[in-house]
């Protein structure tokens, strides 16, 4: 599977539970939508993923990538009910950084 560099880096930092490095994959004004909530800017994104890492200890295993639509399907395993689950990560990428991420089932 041929992932853009920034998505490969995002997966690596998630699996290392490195919230600061994870946030560096995003543009300064990036927006993340997950679990009905919107997180705007690197600082909020880092706080969101840090809390998620502590609460769920979730790891990502890419299973498919739609290059045309920039959608990564990944098996997410962690300490949450229903684990593992396949989630879709809808990316907008510009200048090597994630501008927008929406997580769906």
Automatic annotation (TrEMBL):
This is SnoaL-like domain-containing protein. SUPFAM superfamilies: NTF2-like (SSF54427). Gene3D superfamilies: 3.10.450.50. The lineage of its organism: Bacteria, Pseudomonadati, Bacteroidota, Flavobacteriia, Flavobacteriales. InterPro entries: NTF2-like_dom_sf (IPR032710). It comes from Chryseobacterium arachidis.
């Amino acid at each position: 599977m041929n992932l853009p560099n920034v998505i490969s880096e995002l997966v690596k930092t998630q699996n290392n539970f490195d919230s600061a490095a994870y946030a560096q994959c995003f543009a300064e004004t990036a927006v993340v939508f997950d679990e009905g909530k919107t997180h705007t800017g690197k600082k909020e994104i880092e706080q969101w993923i840090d809390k998620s890492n502590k609460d769920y200890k979730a790891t990502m295993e890419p299973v498919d990538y739609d290059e045309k639509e920039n959608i990564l399907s990944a098996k997410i395993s962690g300490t949450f009910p229903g684990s593992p689950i396949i989630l879709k990560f809808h990316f907008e990428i510009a200048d090597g950084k994630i501008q927008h991420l929406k997580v769906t089932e």
